[in-house]
Specification:
Layout: H1 2-28, H2 34-45, H3 50-60, H4 65-81, H5 85-109, H6 130-149, H7 153-176, H8 182-208
Length: 210
């Protein structure tokens, strides 16, 4: 168990270091990201169809403020009513920190969004992707909470498939809709994973040693 905890801490630290490196490139050498951003954007947007556009417009709503807040309230209320205090605290801290840190970094870096070809109206800055950090924090926390609370292996696997799809599809929707550069998505996911790992270690480390 100790080895597993150390591995998680190592991966979280690596994710944070990679995010810092990516943020450095965004601020000081943005041209270094043009190639990978363009290639990934062209690849993802090459699958555009009318039905897929409707699908991703629906998926991207999960990370918008009102749906995200409602989802958080429902999950926190359920965990609290069931007296899963540690899991509730973990969920609250992870999602609130992810949202707050995202806004702070965006206001510092002030990277413009893609200017042409957006499929939905949007304002604000681009790096890191708020939807990506939010989906990683939200669904990543649900993966950890599911592991703690669900004993039925089949139910656990089914739930985890949904959570993983959320982690993947919400960020992809932002590139598909052309409101983020792919490097914004990568940055958001890295930072979200680092925050998730930090709180996982802080809140659950003692209970794991029992």
């Amino acid at each position: 168990m100790k080895h597993r905890n150390n591995s998680q801490a190592w991966f979280g630290t690596l994710a944070l270091l990679l995010f810092i490196g990516l943020a450095f490139l965004v601020v000081y050498i943005p041209s270094s990201l043009n190639g990978i951003d363009h290639s990934l954007k062209v690849f993802i947007q090459s699958f555009r169809t009318a039905n897929l556009t409707k699908f991703f417009k629906l998926i991207t709503e999960i990370g918008n403020p009102i749906p995200f807040i409602v989802i958080n309230i429902v999950i926190i209320a359920w965990l609290t009513l069931r007296k899963h205090w540690q899991d509730a605290l973990f969920f609250i801290l992870t999602t609130i920190t992810a949202t707050g840190v995202n806004h702070l970094i965006k206001d510092i870096i002030k990277r413009p969004r893609p200017k042409i070809g957006r499929l939905i109206p949007i304002g604000g800055y681009s790096f890191p992707s708020g939807h990506s950090i939010a989906s990683m924090a939200l669904f990543g926390a649900l993966i950890i909470i599911t592991a703690h609370l669900v004993r039925n292996n089949l139910l656990k696997w089914v739930a985890d498939i949904f959570w993983i799809l959320g982690i993947i599809l919400v960020p992809i929707s932002r590139v598909y809709l052309n409101v983020h550069h792919p490097s914004d998505i990568i940055g958001g996911m890295l930072l979200g994973f680092a925050i998730l790992t930090i709180y996982n270690q802080i809140i659950f480390s003692k209970s794991r040693r029992r």
